[in-house]
Amino acid sequence: MQTACPSCDLVVEIPHLSAKQVAVCPHCKTKLSSSQANQDSAVVALSLSAILMLLSSMFYPFLSFSSSGITQTITLPDAARILFNYDNDFLGLFIDISIIGLPMLLLLLIIPLHLGLLKILPYQWGKRLLKTTFALQPWIMSEIFLIGVMVSMVKIMSMADIEFGVSFWAYGAFVISYIATTAKLNKQNLWYQLKEPVFIEQIKPNTRAIDQGLRACHVCGQLCDSEICSRCESKTYTRNPFSVQKAAAWLITSVACYIPANIYPIMYTTSLGDETPSTIIGGVMILWNSGSYPIAMIIFLASVVVPLAKALILSFLCFMVMQPANRQTKSYTRIYQLTEFIGKWSMIDVFVVAILVALVQLGNLMSVTPGIGTIFFTTMVICQMLAAHAFDPRLLWDSPNNLNKVKQETLA
Q: What's the whole-model pTM score?
């Protein structure tokens, strides 16, 4: 198989892989492909298990909160429903989509794909189905929501009795099954089922694709010598158009949201009629003073340090695009990959607020309501994820002549 590394653009000839073998780029060590061994039955079984667990988690008690003889019990959909009751439609819709809707849709698509649907579907339908399936995965945040639930329990465990319901354990089993499913998902094998890759003759391995006039399709990874991908018929580009400009625009928007997200309260806590606002830093200080040092550090890192560090790192990488590649470029690529991976984990605090709002509703005795800071924080994390997706790491490896070529192509 011929391919170009998505991180450094090196052309690589990948041989047939045995079971459990992984192909990595010899230049920047980016994972390029995994074993082509048939794992369809395992993926289908895990997907069915995940769907069953997700459905089970929808209809039974998820968490119970008891204080002063008053008990509040919620189901999983209540986390978003109560936010709708507070006119926080944006956050409620985001939670419903990211932890229930998208995971269910992805699993429902994966099953027929691994049962041979691509072999009988018309080409155009199969192509759209694969594109949709792979586009959903980065926006699914079920595992982050589960961590957020655990953090919220630590926050309120000292003030009330907490009981985990059947749905909580079912959702935990769903997250484990979902992670196992996606770990076995072989994107290259699915594209092969749709259409065999086109082999380009007289190709020079261990040289960069841009230097040979080749392009790697950003959708299916097919190496192309034309503007239209020969496998998925997507328009191909030497580099993602206006990559740095798009990344910078999303970064500026995220920084504009980062400031109010840390200034305005993310939630209000009412106890015996007395309402107290809580910012992100304020919540971290409460956890620290109560002795929950690990949880305080997790929230501080995920909600304060990581967003700021990600903005600084992506800004630095946008600047380094204009500098010639050097011995540090491989490290810059690794940093970018890490930044892209951890981006959505900043959403932990948003899910903590959602759980607390849904669970702690005991009237004037004790209740939690969402603050406007939550909207700014959610928007900030989404913008940073979009910035990371927009940035093209191959630009870090390009020479000035390559950059001029990319600029001319983009403006053409």
A: 0.85
